[in-house]
Amino acid sequence: GNDYADAYEKFNKLYLEKRWGDGLPLDPPTKEKVDWMLTGTDRDPGEVIVETHPSGRPATVRQIAINAVMAGAIPAYMPVIIAALQAFDKIPWGWGGVSTTSACAPMIIVNGPIAKQLDINGKTNSLGYGWRANGGIGRTLEMIFHCVGGAIPGLSDMSTMGNSHTYTSMVCSENQDVLDDIGWPNYAEELGYDKNANTVHAAIVMCGYNILFPYGLMDNPEALIDDMVRSANPVNQMGYPAGPNKELASVLSTWLLTP
Question: What is the pTM of this model?
């Protein structure tokens, strides 16, 4: 390019033409930026984390780092991104979710001290904008689906209407402070994990999520519960939760001890 701005525009135009992106501006994955991203994990850059679909291409640690750079993530997110991919890979119908005609996207829930350390939003607007961790982690996953997995709209991703959540998936944490106040276990504890373990959960959620409007039901507990069950069913019928991925705790324990 004639200057940095021109080179940046040409880079983004080329990557969009090659289907190496999601349509939003990308951060150029220079060698220096990729090497910087790899400092977030002690895994070998050539290690294969998952086999992606529909392309069948393996996603290595280096490829994950490249996509993390383009998505605007930082090295601290790498262990969570890797574990989220591993958890997603365990969902029986998971990879079908990137090719289906339905409008669905992954939901990634992070528990444990790492959620606060990375400032993963689990409070107001947790599935919306405004948090780099939620957006950077989720967008990296979606970039891997496109750039490595080969999910291309109209060719291999056949979603008829699409879903805006496929830009960044749905990444959030549970509000541990509120759970502690009311004495409820978090999702990881319900599945037998320690409250202080760093865990990640993955599920495929159809069309985002449902909102329950309890108008006229507050004086009828039985009717309210019935409405909640009916409201949840369309979301969960294709959910296939994979549960927490133990690998995240072991990766983080090593990574946190290594500056």
Answer: 0.85
